[in-house]
Amino acid sequence: MKQSLLIIFTILSLYVFSQENIKGQLHGNFNIDVQQYSEDTIIGASKPSELILMNAYGNFNYTYGNFSAGLRYEAYLNSLEGFDKSYNGQGIAYKYLSYKNQKDLGIIVGNFYEQFGSGLILRSYQEKMLGYDNAFEGVKVNYSGIRGVSFKGLIAKQRLFWTVGDGIVRAIDGDFSINEMFQLENNTQITIGGSFVSKFQADKDPILKLPENVGSGAARLSLSNGGFMLSSEYAYKSQDPSSDNGYIYKNGEALLINATYSAKGIGVYLSAKRVDNMSFRSDRGQKINNLNINYIPDISKIHTYTLASMYQYATQTNGEMGTRAEIMYKFKKESFLGGKNGTEISVSYATAYDINRVSANDTTAIAIKGYDGYKSNFFEIGDELFYNDLNIGLHKKIGDKFKLNVEYLNQTINYEQLRGEVDHSGNKMVYSNIGIVDLTWKIKSKRTLRFEFQGLFTKQDKQDWAMGLIEYTMAPHWFIAVYDAYNYGNLHSDLKIHYVNTSVGYMKNSTRIQLSYGKSMEGVICVGGVCRVVPATNGFALSITSSF
């Protein structure tokens, strides 16, 4: 199949570029990240044999009428530190051909990404920052020829670095707009949906009898009226013994509920979820981020500031119960608290606990290979806390020259549970308070100066941190930034380290070039609850992005 697709792409390219007047459109983008490494034994930064490593890719997408084709060339020479070395190499990692008529039918052959509902039983996507890519390779069909109804189905394997996994995924999904189907004219919009996903993987286990076909189903409902919206989805998975759950035969289930309300000057967001044994991979023996069929949305708030994101939450697919509430309110201009330009405040709180578990067998063990493992009351919260995050923010424009953002965070993280080991000081739990002040000063037209001050205070792990940043922007092309993250509270005097980093960048049209030099601390980076360990580094880094 790969050879056939490459031949088709070659013929298509020769045809397109041989025409004097190209009627189609070619779009794409490039990204190159190059890192030079120097050894630094104090911060734990290693020097690889290659000294310089690179992650790079280029996307090319061509459309002509109802047809489109594309490919992505990737090069890891060799992959940056912190990325799986199985990526080392280069080649065409993604390619597709698609057809979509103007009415109701769409077909894709080759590689594609897809999500059913909120992703509880199926989501494929890529996140280059994490080294995450579980793209499908196969065939997908969309159909929307019935009023208010749309269907999509696929049969495919999944990307595993430069090849595909052994398992086969079969899936179908449907959305039904009640208002369109029955031509209802009211302000409440009602949509229901359902999905079914199954995977096939041969049983080669010499001891256990493993199910070769594992099925999962999900049902969802969405209601909206004006500024109010409610969405919910429930998913169920049949027996799926795997390395993630210790090869137990318990069924899996998940429930996700989201509610939002927005009006002038106010916004409210509420979310709750329960997850029980919902790891779902097309290869039962894989680990970490490899060959995930589904995605469990993160319950915590996404933080962009460095110290606020030092202790990020990683989604626990084997079991978690979590809630999140957030409210944003803007005081009116010229009011006592609003001032000349208004004042916006936000308060959010997120928490996650383990689920309650009791043995399913007459034994003291909770999970025994080859058995159901455990039972769990759906509405009962477990005793073990995974994560707490209270965030209070104030955002205000001061006059015509200044913008101010102030945040306070109180976080608790179960370091042992989420990282698989105790922290650097031997503690299971880490409790921290974080303060952030971010001030932007518009000196004059196209000239801004931004100051950022952060402090993290904790008696656990590496203790207290302070961080300062200065960024000067000369729009529309140049910027320069310097930051220093200082672990001043470390109990070991030789580890009271300054992580100083300087970067300069140039932007023109859709091209951005950034060169950095300095130290970066070790840690864990998470996007939506999916995480990657980031090692400490010292050296130069070059990043180039562009699109056309």
Q: Could you report the average pLDDT, rounded to the nearest whole number?
A: 93
For the largest beta-sheet, the strand count, sense and barrel status come to: 24 strands, antiparallel, barrel
N/C terminus separation:
29 Å
What is the quaternary state of this protein? Answer: single chain
Helix/strand structural class = mainly beta
How big a fraction of the residues is strand?
Answer: over 45%
What is this structure, in a nutshell?
The chain has 548 residues and is mainly beta. The chain has helices spanning 2-17, 178-181, 415-419, and strands at residues 25-36, 52-64, 67-76, 89-100, 105-112, 114-115, 123-124, 126-127, 132-133, 136-146, 149-160, 163-164, 168-177, 189-200, 213-225, 228-237, 252-263, 266-276, 319-331, 343-355, 358-359, 374-375, 381-398, 402-414, 429-444, 447-457, 465-474, 478-486, 498-508, 511-520, 523-527, 530-534, 537-547.
Please explain how this structure is put together.
With 548 residues, the protein is mainly β. Helix content is 5%, strand content 56%. The protein is built from 3 helices and 33 strands. It has a 24-stranded antiparallel barrel. A two-stranded antiparallel sheet has the order 6-7. The two termini are 29 Å apart.
